[in-house]
Amino acid sequence: MSQEFYQYIFAKQQNLEAVPSNREITAWALKVIHLLYPERTGQKFASIEDLKDEFLRLENELCDIMHATKACSNCDTAKLAKKFFENLPELFRVLNTDIQAIFNGDPAARSEFEVIRTYPGFYAISLYRVAHSLYIDDIPLLPRILTEYAHSKTGIDIHPAAKIDEYFYIDHGTGIVIGESCTIGKHVKLYQGVTLGALSVDKSMANTKRHPTVEDNVVIYSGATILGGETVIGHNSVVGGNVWLTKSLPPNSRVYHTPNHRILKRLSMRFFGEKK
């Protein structure tokens, strides 16, 4: 390698933007989730005072993370951290509705404990809800790091800016994409491989409504692709597997993909030694 290449990499390292490691940031978020849901770790505290101290410690830890992040240099870190933890009971309430939606909607779920401990959908939703809470308070960078971490662990890609109401149910989850300007109502159920995306990817479309709106009580089955900021899936609709949609659906719609499969010839099978 040339001397110029070494110099370029060295200079890049010296001018690196200050931000704690992704591991440090996601560890903080997971500690918050584990505190809310001891089912994930078995963590117990000896007294309520010890529990309060842990919440305060995590509030200070969030402050420290923001202090060490250049993108947060103009933030009132103490005020933002305090606000996040003041909103935590509401975040916990909404997460509990997600757990109920998964438990009530999946015949394979034996208990809410099982949902909390094992379901990748709940794992991704819980990190999204933490990230979205930080996002709506204009905390930069950290929300995206959290949802991309969840994406790397579960294959479920939810942008932290997406607006998702309560009782959200992701089944299986792998391959789901929920874009930045998506709006999703209550009691919505998504299966694996669903894409709620933009019609086109162009930098000039930043800060515009590029992704669909999904109203209350909609079910979208695996592999469906729904695109466009003006596309609205009306309430109580069902979108079948592998459907491709770029136009709105009125409420109470049913849309299914109809593949044109034909059996041209029925083959008879004979094994070696068999007579006709």
TrEMBL record:
Domain Serine acetyltransferase N-terminal: 72-125
UniProt keywords, alphabetically: Acyltransferase, Amino-acid biosynthesis, Transferase
InterPro entries according to UniProt: LbH_SAT (IPR045304), Ser_AcTrfase_N (IPR010493), Ser_AcTrfase_N_sf (IPR042122), Serine_acetyltransferase (IPR053376), Trimer_LpxA-like_sf (IPR011004)
Source taxon at top rank: Bacteria
GO molecular function: serine O-acetyltransferase activity
GO cellular component terms listed in the entry, alphabetical order: cytoplasm
Keyword Thylakoid attributed: no
GO terms (BP aspect): cysteine biosynthetic process from serine
Annotated PANTHER family: SERINE ACETYLTRANSFERASE
The protein's name: Serine acetyltransferase
Organism for this UniProt entry: Mucilaginibacter celer
